[in-house]
Amino acid sequence: MEVLTRLLPKLAELLVGEYNLQNEVKGGIKFLQVELEHMKAALEKISGTPADQIDKQDKIWARDVRELSYDIEDKVDTFMVRCKGSKQGKHHGLKKVIDRSLDLLMQPKIRHKIATDIRDIKSRVEEVGKRRDRYKIQSVPANPVSATIDPRLLGQYRMATELVGIDEAREELLRILIEGDKVSMQQGKIISIVGFGGLGKTTLANAVYQKISAKFECRAFVSVSQTPDMRKLLKLLFYELDKNINVETLDEGQLINELRQFLLEKRYFIVVDDIWDIWVWETIRCALPHNNKGYRIIVTTRNVKVAEHVGGAYNIKPLSPHNSRILLNNRVYGNNDAEKSSDDELAEVSDKIIKKCAGVPLAIITIASLLARKGRNKMDWYEVCNSIGTGMENSIDVQNMRKILSYSYYDMPSQLRTCLLYLSVFPEDYKIGKDRLIRLWIAEGFIQYEDKRNNLFETGESYFNEIINRSMIQPVYGFTGIIEYCQLHDMVLDLVRCLSSEEHFVTVLSDTEHTSPLTKARRLSLQNSEADHASTWRTRSMPQVRSLVVFSYAINQIPALQWFKVLRVLDLKDCDLSKGYSLKYLGSLFHLRYLNLSSTWIDQLPKEVENLQFLETLDIEENNISLLQLNIAQFRHLLCLLVDFGTIVSNGIWSLKSLEELSWLRMDDESMDHIEELGLLTELKVLRMSLHTDKWNSKMAESLSKLRKIQTLCICYARGQCDIGGLDAWVTPDHLRHLHMQDGCWLSMLPAWMNNPSHLADLCELHIAVRELQEKDLNVLGRLPALAYLNLLVDHVSLGILGRFVVGASLFPCLICCELKVFVVPVVFQNGAAPRLTEFYFDFHLREVKEIAGSDGGGFDLGLQNLPLLETVTVCFRSGGASNEEEEEAKAAVRKAAEFHPNKPELVSCRKFGALTQSVLPCFSHSPILLASLSSLFVSFSDFL
């Protein structure tokens, strides 16, 4: 259906655009618009219905419509590319005259071809429509709820002896619900259990319900479907509470009123299992009154937004490896001893299976049921292990597992389902970069403008976050505490691969599978490291393939580029192209929107790449390209340009008026003379600049002030250290999220615009180097409402600023990770400051701290006890002439502070931090590989407390 969403606007554009189409062709296009609108409506019903509830003929018809839609879009795009491409002349003088003459000769041929194509397409559409009528395909059920038993209900009836690893979570919830306090039992309390499908939310809720429900006068456990009949649900709730009340004749409003009256003076305990929508909870909540008799409500949901709205969100945790092994052994062997395997030779494969199941009870139980039928054959167990996430056998247990997970899939809007299916191009356990994924979605046309205030990338971010909120993908946080990647649980990958294969959405070639026939392939994902199809593909035309994603271990599978006709996405990230694969025909991929050649060991792009006039994303980071010898101005539609820290992009960079992300912009003496032109790139949202000049231009602030849409700004200096002046005049944009001005770039004082926290309300990540910082300045940073990561470097030793800094209560409310560098004395957090801080790095000078301790008695008071969520503390000691005894005293003080902390945070202590690391490490900050290597050298001399 996603292709029809894109295709219909394109047909409309053909009618109103300057394409000079004949009346007959326009009539054919109007016919197609009407027919495809109706087909789109029918496909929406089919695609939102579980596959096991769709008639086989409906499936065939839907498949035919999808294939036809792809073919139509390919023909329409080819026509548009030829027309628009011919108008974008890139030559001058005689060559330009020749090009125009050739274009004039080609126009009649191009228009004749589209006229023929439209007639052919019209007849095919008519045939598809007649075929549907001819065989009288049944309509899709109005209510997509299976009549069979919901497999989730089994979780309510597990015997206590079957429950593994649930005791700790159950006791934690009981403490929250009861607290052993008589007063608290007279108050109301609501808990929402939230988590991934199959984690055991229903089982946990039922375990708590069985434990304490007898303490309440009224109690009920009701399950909510995805499309609930609210009247039926409320009646069921009434019967659970009191089976003697007759409510058959009451409507929904009357039922709510009766329930409220019935419960108003009673202590009640109700579990509402599996809520999908906020409006459902709001309706149920109307029937559950607040009273002073003492009530408890547990809600389970997969949706984070629902849990947050209900309140009291409790994130259910996966099983530990220990409990996972118990559950697996119990299901396979009937053996509850996790440490004892019935077969030692199966221990290794068992560990691999447990790791793949990632603590999800549903996954462990499903796999255990397969293993139990395999006997004790190690090879059979490995076969099951390797199939996890890549298409397991269709046993009843696997089908039930997929059915449980598919509830979440079919609950999503169609555009989110499409975006999730696309994740099947990635191998299992692959960390998928958020920005890369969103750019791929955009290039594929999955994201459409929904709000004029947001661009496509921002809309894509909202899709990404919504899929996370629905527990279908797992977020992976970077060291800043911000989501940078995502991963698919292997069970979700299995579901996604299964659905994708059925629809011929993605064709995957890997060692363990080959999904969908190649003749139907629209999107190819090459993950194969052994089989060699390259010899047959060298001469094989692929006119229908629109997306090719290749992973490093499948480099020998890359087909020759000249055989692709409508390719829109080419992603060769991490493939070593230095071993002979040719990019010679790259410039013939006229439809290309997305080109990712990062980490491919290339040293230049072919000149013909300038032909890719519809390119939106060009990523050539982490290569050996010192000078990009292309006329960048040709890429009029470019949204994202990613090059290396030192790559020179000399020609046309200021002409890219649509550019939204530019990393890195290399500024040398010559380009700094044209810094005013930076202000022309008004659509920029992400800008990373590397300074390769000592000629700092005070006009930088003026140019940056014109970039009102900037959300991420990074300025790094490549030649040691540089004092940045004039940035006090920078008018910061309204939605700045990430600011990085460190790595050799120094501010003399905190800029004035930092004093307006409301103007920096979205700033969540800050790297900044300030030579002179006062305590009041630190308090200014502490008032930034969204700041989650702070990396602050000062020069207090050189300036003689030796006093202790204290962070007061209520400051840094959202801070998760904090690095405070080269403060002479440790910064102390008072009670109530940084309540969310989990990782804290600081360094201090032993000699100066010892002297200050003697004068004010502060000693090594770090205030760590005031940081309730602290998990990791890293301390670097700078000796400054201190003795070994003084160093040991400091270590003991830090160790004592950690031991007295309730969380017992992990402590890492670096040995005396010398001048070498202070001066050398910042110089390599632009090179992650060199920095990692150098850092490991110093870490090897670290001293762990």
UniProtKB/TrEMBL annotation:
Which keywords, in A-to-Z order, does the entry hold? Coiled coil, Leucine-rich repeat, Nucleotide-binding, Plant defense, Repeat
Report whether Protein biosynthesis shows up as a keyword of the record. Answer: no
Q: Which organism was this protein described from?
A: Eragrostis curvula (weeping love grass)
| Family named by the database record | Belongs to the disease resistance NB-LRR family.
Q: What is this protein called?
A: AAA+ ATPase domain-containing protein
Q: Where is the Disease resistance N-terminal domain?
A: 3-89
NB-ARC domain ranges (all copies): 184-336
Give residue ranges for domain Disease resistance R13L4/SHOC-2-like LRR: 544-907
Database matches in Pfam families: LRR_14 (PF23598), NB-ARC (PF00931), Rx_N (PF18052), WHD_DRP (PF23559)
Ranked from the top, the taxonomy reads: Eukaryota, Viridiplantae, Streptophyta, Embryophyta, Tracheophyta
In this entry, which stretches build a coiled coil?
none
